[in-house]
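Please go through the sequence line and token line underneath and see whether the fold suits the sequence. See right below:
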Amino acid sequence: MEELSEDPYLPYDGGGDTIPLQEMPIKGSNYAMSNGGGVVSSSTHLLDLLEEPIPGVGTYDDFHTIDWVREKCKDRERHRKINSKKKESAWEFTKSLYDAWSGWLVVTLTGLASGALAGVIDIAADWMNDIKEGVCLTAMWFNHEQCCWGSNETTFAERDKCPQWKTWAELILGQAEGPGSYIMNYFMYTYWALSFAFTAVCLVKVFAPYACGSGIPEIKTILSGFIIRGYLGKWTLMIKTITLVLAVASGLSLGKEGPLVHVACCCGNIFSYLFPKYSKNEAKKREVLSAASAAGVSVAFGAPIGGVLFSLEEVSYYFPLKTLWRSFFAALVAAFVLRSINPFGNSRLVLFYVEYHTPWYLFELFPFILLGVFGGLWGAFFIRANIAWCRRRKSTRFGKYPVLEVMTVAAVTAVVAFPNPYTRQNTSELIKELFTDCGPLESSQLCQYRSRMNGTSAYTDAAGNTATTPGVYSAMWQLGLALVFKVVMTIFTFGLKVPSGLFIPSMAIGAIAGRIVGIVMEQLAYYHHDWFLFKEWCEVGADCITPGLYAMVGAAACLGGVTRMTVSLVVIVFELTGGLEYIVPLMAAVMTSKWVGDAFGREGIYEAHIRLNGYPFLDAKEEFTHTTLARDVMRPRRSDPPLAVLTQDDLTLAELQAIITQTSYNGFPVIVSKESQRLVGFALRRDITIAIENARRKQEGILLNSRVYFTQHAPTLPADSPRPLKLRSILDMSPFTVTDHTPMEIVVDIFRKLGLRQCLVTHNGRLLGIVTKKDILRHMAQMADQDPDTIMFN
């Protein structure tokens, strides 16, 4: 494929302005009909193809859409062949068993690799995150918590300052307190943050440009049938794993959960090449990738069932029952491996696993729904602001300097984050602190106003009432500032040229807002326990509000507002907390956030980035409500030149090559004759080119004036004619056709449900035109008052 642009990031960014889906460079990576056809006719039983298979026929170029129908036909043919041979010998029977079990084997390997890599990423990110603040003298490879495990100090505050752990100020200046040590710690924190960010962005830029971003928009597009070569390759996997650790440790407002899905899909793609059943069939390979994405979410959140539902609800385009079982198994294996590694030392799969012991009360549904409204508003605001910034990055010179942009964002993040303890710490630890209920063992500032130890009040006012202290007021201020900081920085961070997930920052924003609401509700219930709201449920002196629960509901609401996930999100958060009784508050908040977000726009953040990058993705959730017909969308239009077609038996090789050279279409309808315009089939440009090259190499006597025919029998030729070239084996004898009066909503439905690349339009059996996926996307953009020329790879 010839160089289309100098910018190595362009495929991710939408490819600049020279990678169209319809018109492409002439040299072979041609892209004319983003959906050129090639469904193998089962009625012809692939006879010619099986007699003498042509190497390369049936494969796809980069940035092309696969033909789902053709791939399914190929798989059925392969399956029939194996079944017919398995009784011939013990070896053939063993081969059939291997073929049947290869699906389970590939998802097992994917689950094992995903779990192992997630464990390594968790451990390394934790260690590197603590390196910014200090180092363990007894064992360099221990993080802060592990370093102080052997400490004999009696309180949590003192154990955090155990003698084995030294801050950078203690090591360099020899003093732990004072302005000098604060400035030194501040400097070292910023230095390490910038070092990690610089290393990450340089590795991505030099070795694997596809390793940046979340990866979920691209995986959704790939699962819908699009091909992006190298996106799920071994280099991308290796660089994404290393740079994900560096990006998380740099303190940028991003998470590792989205990129873990990309990492798992890379594992699935690499292992699928070990099995011919998957390596030679793009549709079957996508079943493995669906299972891999479930394994990715399983290890990201310790939620195997949530992972399966995430794959079904959010990323998969085609999800048969067999894939559901395999996704479940892959998620189970991945979670088991991660549990065996135990990266956090707490026998849990995630850092912020919590358990609540107090029930929720009916009057609390009102603040839960308010949190849902906040989540929906935040989601709508974030999507618009982030897409506007990403569009600006693409259209200005700023986007040409990814290293400078990452360094700027990392510097601002580190400088602003250090003074506030809630922004300085790892985002996962912040979420853990916000989720955790106040108990006698908690040393958090958020819990200074009360203690349940021995039933006595830790802080009492003159009347003996448990009340807030200056500690919780300052904590509320710091949380408010942290909320503003996270909101602003997340907008500028998502889309940088480093691996960046959105789950954790969104959950942190929701958890901060939820915890603030929870503390306000708790204080109201304490000081005004005689209000009608609280009188029925709250006894005087008893705890009836759990602020941590509000943080959890807020986290789910904000993540739902950004991604528009519903069922899978509720299950993920439920698996995180292990509390069945909190499903109703979660459902109420998540549903409210989706409704509020949908009021401002139906797209989630991933669909918005797919549209921004111009990927050919037909969203199944989007309804087509217009009353146009197939003839309104098909090409050629009245002002266009006539449709480029091939006749079935009166073309010479020179004429065929001229058509291929002079046009840039991705496939050609084959007709009986120019006069009758009766349709015979459809031939892909790539297949024609490969077949001609193969014939010239293997057959003698193929000349420029050789007759090319697509019929079963050769036409009658003069005696002195050169040897004719038969191309029937590459002809799709059963292309999908619709009449010119077919409503476009039916055409769109056919494209979505069958994964078509193109559909031919006929009138009384005569060929009129063609509708491709690109034509449909352009038409939908036009109907939505958008510029149709800017939606594809803009």
Q: What stands out?
A: The first helix runs from residue 10 to 13. Residues 1-51, 451-466 have pLDDT under 50 and may be disordered. DSSP finds 31 helices and eleven strands in the chain. Residues 152 and 159 are 8 Å apart (CA to CA).
